[in-house]
Design a protein that fits this description.
Layout (H helix, E strand, L loop, with lengths): L1 E6 L12 H12 L3 E6 L6 H12 L3 E5 L15 H14 L4 E4 L1 H5 L1 H7 L4 E3 L4 H13 L9 E3 L22 H4 L10 E3 L2 E2 L10 H5 L4 E2 L2 H13 L4 E4 L8 H14 L4 E6 L6 H9 L2 E9 L3 H6 L6 H13 L3 E8 L6 H12 L5 E6 L1 E2 L5 H8 L14 E2 L6 H12 L5 E3 L1
Parallel strand pairs: 1-2, 1-3, 3-4, 4-5, 7-10, 10-11, 11-12, 12-13, 13-14, 14-17
Antiparallel strand pairs: 5-6, 8-9, 15-16
Bound molecules: cobalamin and iron/sulfur cluster.
Length: about 425
């Protein structure tokens, strides 16, 4: 079949991201001999004419649209990014009567709400590789689409429970041309995913809705082979998009050592869960070219961390930060204020603690985006912060009752004086 795949994301907040998820789907389809054309909307001047040309000239049998961001998770002046994606879906609908199928991280968090709000026909929750291949096979044979795990169909509530790909190695890494559309520059950080799923269960986090809670790892050798292909295509800077690069530790260590042994000459960034970080791992990461890490500690108050279901404490964060400093790895810190258990004292303590660490940047957020099916959503419901019928697609934020948002912001502003590298949102 002829499949037009569109990555609807246009925002360049934080950095220009590349459509890695859609690239995995494109590779899976082309391996099954479908004819795939892909459009990445980020940075395009005239999206409408690109989509028009593709639909008129390529004449797709099916259109797949990837929804990444719903919003910027910022409580003040929130950017509701999904609105732009909805326009792209509407445009595709005006130009084609072929089935429009949605997918992506943003879609997977709100599958029914987005389907009923948009002009799409169906959507796939979670990983798209296997499910979209099955949908195409059935469409080709004219068979009913009932019973495909994770497939939501407009007007038919109650999708069959999705299935996770146990052996992610069954779906090969995508060819570099699907990921890197524009020329590679010094600012290009090419995404690499080595693991899917996160077992950590933080109280506010949506990852379970997207990747599930069972951790699935790719063999290190296949990751190295793939990075080799990216390097051959001109890439020198990678971003490991795994939720927690350091977990499991044994995998992170093997991967870091394998990168060093392969002599790939790359610089890379990754996301760290500040728990069980030790010198052997940090030195292996530094040797392998790790240049910067995101250290999501969120708070320094033991009670707040406990209620966020974090497994680390304040001393784990301090130790991790010292080690990354020792090995010259740049650290970006993240704090989130307003969670259950937050008090004026915990806000003050957390800010003092953050100032004592060696962060190149500190990103500070006030108010926590509430996602469906999370412990935080349960708490917000009990406290009357959200209503039971609210799909939460339009962003809602949590601040623990009794704590004044303005006071938090003023307090952060006072502590931020003298720290131009602190960014408040
Ligand atoms: C790594 C990451 C980042 C990195 C990106 C680095 C890079 N070079 O790419 C950084 C830190 C820069 C970042 C920034 C931001 N991020 Co971010 N990020 C992630 C993270 C952890 C992984 C994304 C990823 O690459 N996944 C790997 C790929 C392979 O998976 P995938 O895209 O989901 O694709 C699979 C399926 O979804 C599906 N699929 C995908 N497309 C399609 C299409 C079809 C048709 C089908 C059928 C299936 C399908 O199949 C794919 C393969 O199985 C996710 C959380 C998560 N676990 O998903 C958040 C996440 C996507 N980010 C999020 C947000 C909000 C942001 C920011 C807006 C934050 C901010 N204010 O700065 C920015 C926006 C950046 C931008 N320009 O778009 C949110 C989005 C939710 C929301 N509220 O909008 C997420 C979900 C995290 C969360 N809070 O829950 N991010
Ligand atoms: S460690 Fe990160 S991805 Fe995993 S549950 Fe916690 S916040 Fe979500």
């Amino acid at each position: 079949m002829k499949v037009l795949l569109i990555s609807a994301n246009r925002t360049e907040i934080n950095m220009r991201t590349m459509p890695l998820g859609l690239a995995f789907v494109a590779q899976a389809l082309s391996d099954r001999h479908h004819n795939v054309k892909m459009i990445d909307c980020v940075g395009l001047d005239d999206i409408e004419s690109h989509i028009k040309d593709a639909i008129n000239n390529f004449r797709p049998d099916v259109i797949g649209i990837s929804i990444r961001n719903i919003d910027d998770q910022t409580m003040v002046n929130t950017h509701f990014l999904y609105r732009d994606d909805r326009e792209i879906i509407a445009l595709a609908r005006r130009l084609s009567d072929r089935p429009i199928i949605l997918g992506g991280a943003g879609y997977s968090m709100f599958p029914d709400a987005i389907l009923s709000d948009s002009d799409a026909d169906m959507g796939i929750e979670g990983e798209g590789e296997a499910a979209l291949c099955t949908v195409l096979e059935k469409l080709e044979k004219g068979e009913p689409l009932d019973d495909i795990p994770g497939l939501h169909t407009k007007g038919k509530p109650g999708a069959r429970k999705r299935e996770f790909i146990r052996d992610t190695g069954n779906f090969p890494f995508p060819d570099p041309h699907y990921i890197v559309g524009s020329p590679v520059t010094a600012d290009t950080w090419v995404p690499v995913q080595t693991r899917r799923g996160c077992p950590m269960d933080c109280s506010y986090c949506s990852t379970a809705s997207i990747e599930g809670r069972i951790l699935r790892k790719r063999p290190v050798a296949s990751v190295i082979e793939w990075i080799g292909r990216l390097v051959a295509a001109g890439t020198r800077q990678l971003y490991f998009v795994d939720n927690t690069f350091n977990l499991p530790r044994s995998y992170a260590l093997s991967l870091s050592r394998a990168i060093t042994d392969a002599g790939l000459g790359i610089k890379w960034r990754s996301i760290i869960y500040p728990w069980r970080i030790d010198e052997e791992l940090v030195s292996a990461m530094a040797d392998a070219g790790c240049f910067e890490i995101s250290l999501g500690s969120e708070s320094a108050d033991e009670e707040v961390l406990r209620r966020m279901h974090k497994r680390f404490g304040r001393e784990d964060v301090a130790r991790a930060s010292r080690l990354f400093k020792k090995y010259g790895i740049k650290q970006i810190g993240f704090l989130m204020f307003g969670a259950p258990g937050e008090t004026r004292q915990s806000v003050q303590d957390t800010l003092v603690f953050a100032a004592s660490l060696d962060y190149a940047f500190l990103k500070v957020t006030v108010g926590i985006r509430i996602y469906p099916h999370t412990a935080l959503a349960g708490e917000a419901l009990k406290q009357g912060i959200i209503q039971p019928d609210d799909p939460l697609l339009e962003p809602r934020f949590y601040i623990t009752p009794g704590l004044d948002e303005i006071w938090i912001r003023d307090t952060i502003a006072q502590h931020a004086m003298g720290h131009p590298n602190w960014i408040l949102s």
